[in-house]
Amino acid sequence: MIYLINKMKEILKLLILVSCIVSCASLTNIAPGYIEAFKSIKVIYAGYEDTISKDTIEQIPYASALLKIGKGPKGLIILESKVNDTETWVSADNVFFNLKNGKIIATAGLPNNLVGISEISNPNWNEIDLNNDANVYSYYSYDYPALNNLRLKVIKKKVGEQKVDLLMGEKTLILYEEEVSNEYLGWNFKNQYWVDKSGFIWKSKQYLSTKLPIIEIEVTKKPAL
């Protein structure tokens, strides 16, 4: 146990050093030193969901979140960069996510990556109420197999207020849902977002396509404004 504690201290020192030299990067241009530092953290808890504790989160000098893909174990992702309202998050397994206002808009490192999403007349969450669903169209593009600007119908709904148990404590949040479909391909899936009154998404369950399992993200340390 003492060895692990000392090892964690060494890794945290390395992370702090790396944070001083990392600049903003695109989804496929993450600083190599940053990735190696994150791989070092993985040695301590990889594959053991219970070892990702509040203490672990509080000691890491980055915005962080828990990631779960399908039935796999929970792992940690950390914020690599933020440009305007688009964030780049990275996992210890070199999987990258671009998030815009809590929604996944691009990935790298998955078997079938989402290249981008464009949305038409996409309302803010606080513009949707219990009696006023929002119907919009989104265009999804993927890398393998290549598929460009697939048109998907999206119905956004406000479900209501819920108390949600998060790793860092209970929060009262508002649940919103997206019903996503494409009649020609027979695609039908539902995304869920738990949002606070300021519009920040603390937890989400998102499908990127029918070829990938559901992706759950739970923010454990909120990015700085």
The chain-level mean pLDDT equals 78
Q: Write out the CATH superfamily name of the largest domain.
A: YmcC-like
Shape type: globular
* CATH class wording of the largest domain: Mainly Beta
Number of helices, where a helix is a run of at least 4 consecutive DSSP H or I residues: 3
Largest sheet: 12 strands, antiparallel
Strand order of the largest sheet: 5-4-3-2-1-12-11-10-9-8-7-6
Instruction: Please tally the β strands and state the result.
Output: 12
Helix content: 10-25%
| SSE pattern | HHHEEEEEEEEEEEE
The chain-level structural class is alpha+beta
CATH architecture of the largest domain: Beta Barrel
Termini Cα gap: 36 Å
Describe this structure in words.
By secondary structure, this protein is of the alpha+beta class. The protein folds into 2 domains: 2-77, no CATH class; 114-219, Beta Barrel (YmcC-like fold), CATH 2.40.360.10. It is 18% helix and 47% strand. The protein has 3 helices and 12 strands, in the order αααββββββββββββ. The protein has helices at 2-21, 32-45, 54-59, and strands at 64-69, 75-83, 86-91, 96-100, 103-108, 114-120, 134-143, 146-166, 169-182, 187-195, 201-206, 215-221. It has a 12-stranded antiparallel sheet. β1 and β2 form a beta hairpin. α1 (2-21) packs antiparallel against α2. The longest helix is centred in the N-terminal third of the chain and has 20 residues, at 2-21. It is globular. Mean pLDDT is 78; it is low at 1-50.
Concise account of the structure shown:
This protein is α+β, with helices and mostly antiparallel strands and 225 residues long.
